[in-house]
Design goal:
Blueprint (H helix, E strand, L loop, with lengths): L5 E3 L2 E3 L3 E3 L21 E3 L16 E4 L2 E4 L8 H12 L5 E6 L4 H13 L4 E5 L16 H14 L4 E4 L7 H10 L4 E4 L3 E3 L2 E2 L4 E2 L6 E4 L4 H12 L6 E3 L6 H10 L3 E4 L2 H4 L3 H16 L15
Parallel strand pairs: 3-4, 3-16, 4-7, 7-8, 8-9, 9-10, 10-15, 15-16
Antiparallel strand pairs: 1-2, 5-6, 6-14, 11-14, 12-13
Helix pairs in contact: 2-3, 3-4, 4-5, 5-6, 6-8
Length: about 300
C-alpha cells in the first residue's frame, strides 16, 4: 500500500489533503459528521488581529461552475482563535495551519507573533489583503510588497511560514520567488480570482461589495497552470488549491508540482469531498504501484 504521508517544511502530515481556509471554519461542525483526524491538515478560518464582522450582505453569489464571495475576513480575532478554537483543535491528531491576514505591516507582524507563539504547526500568510497605507493595492501583487510583508512576518514567526499567493498578477512565478527570498518556507496557491456578477433586473452588482473572489471548478485550469509555473521557479514546497473537487483533480495538481492540496469550495457542495479525495488518491497510487504519494509531485512530462 502506498505511503500517503507528506512533509511541508518539516511538518509531517498523514496524507496530502488539507481543508482550505474559509471553507471549513475550525472543523467543529464537520467533526460531527466524521473524525477530522482523517484529514492531513486544516487551514483555519482567516484570523486578523482583532475581531472582524466582515462585509455586509449579499456576499455570496453563484456562478457557472463556481461561486463568488466577498465575506471580508469575518472572524473572532486572534485572541479567540488562540484561547477558544486552538485548544479544541490540539486535542485532535491533525496538522493545524493558522491562516492570518492584515491590512498593514504592523497588523500582520502582531497577529503573526501571537499565533506563532501559540501551539500551531504552520502559519499561512494571506497576502491578498489590501494595504490601507498604500492606497488599497493588495500586498501580494508586487514583488516589493511581498518581500516587505514576508520579511516583517519572518522576523517574529517561529513556525514554518507558508505564503498564500494571489492569482491576480501577471507573473506569479516572480511573486513566488520574492516570497522565497524573503523567508517563506512554502507557498500555497491559488487564492481566488477577482470577479463580478450583475443582477440585470436591478442593474446592480449581486454582491454588496460589487466584486468578489471566484472559486470552484471554473478556476481549476488556471490553478494548475500557476502551480506548474511556480514549481519551475522555487525550491520550496507548494500547497496547491483552486477548484479541486475530485481525487483526479488532486492527482493532476500534484503532477503539476504540488506537494499537498487544499480543498475549499467543494466542501459547500459535498462536506465529505476531502475524504473521497483521500480514498481516491490512495486507490490510484496503489494501482500505479507508487511507494509514496510524493512520487506524484512534479511528475508531469511536458511535450
Amino acid at each position: 500500500m502506498t505511503d500517503m504521508r507528506v512533509s511541508i517544511a518539516g511538518v509531517e502530515m498523514k496524507n496530502p489533503i488539507i481543508t482550505a481556509s474559509g471553507a471549513f471554519g475550525y472543523g467543529m461542525e464537520y467533526n460531527e459528521m466524521y473524525p477530522i483526524e482523517k484529514l492531513g491538515g486544516i487551514s483555519c478560518k482567516g484570523t486578523t488581529l482583532n475581531e472582524r464582522q466582515g462585509n455586509p450582505g449579499p456576499r455570496i453569489a453563484e456562478t457557472p461552475s463556481g461561486m463568488l464571495n466577498s465575506v471580508g475576513l469575518q472572524n473572532p480575532g486572534s485572541e479567540a482563535f488562540i484561547n477558544i478554537y486552538l485548544p479544541w483543535l490540539r486535542q485532535r491528531d491533525i496538522t493545524v495551519i493558522a491562516n492570518i491576514a492584515g491590512h498593514s505591516l504592523d497588523e500582520y507582524r502582531e497577529v503573526a507573533r501571537r499565533v506563532s507563539d501559540a501551539n500551531v504547526d504552520l502559519v499561512e500568510l494571506n497576502i491578498s489583503c489590501p494595504n490601507v497605507k498604500e492606497g488599497g493595492m493588495s500586498f501580494g501583487t508586487s514583488c516589493e510588497s511581498v518581500e516587505a510583508v514576508v520579511s516583517e512576518v519572518r522576523k517574529v514567526c517561529n513556525r514554518p511560514l507558508v505564503v498564500k499567493l494571489t492569482p491576480n498578477v501577471t507573473d506569479i512565478g516572480s511573486i513566488a520567488q520574492a516570497a522565497e527570498a524573503a523567508g517563506a518556507d512554502a507557498v500555497s496557491l491559488i487564492n481566488t480570482i477577482t470577479g463580478m456578477r450583475i443582477d440585470i433586473r436591478t442593474r446592480r452588482p449581486i454582491l454588496k461589495n460589487n466584486i468578489g473572489g471566484l472559486s470552484g471548478p471554473a478556476v481549476f485550469p488556471v490553478a494548475v497552470r500557476m502551480v506548474r509555473e511556480v514549481y519551475k521557479k522555487v525550491n520550496i514546497p507548494i500547497i496547491g488549491m483552486g477548484g479541486v473537487s475530485t481525487w483526479e483533480d488532486a492527482a493532476e495538481m500534484m503532477m503539476a508540482g504540488a506537494a499537498a492540496i487544499q480543498v475549499g469550495a467543494a466542501l459547500f457542495r459535498d462536506p465529505f469531498a476531502p475524504l473521497k479525495i483521500i480514498d481516491g488518491l490512495q486507490t490510484f497510487a496503489d494501482q500505479q504501484g507508487l511507494k509514496s504519494i510524493t512520487e506524484l509531485t512534479g511528475s508531469v512530462q511536458e511535450w
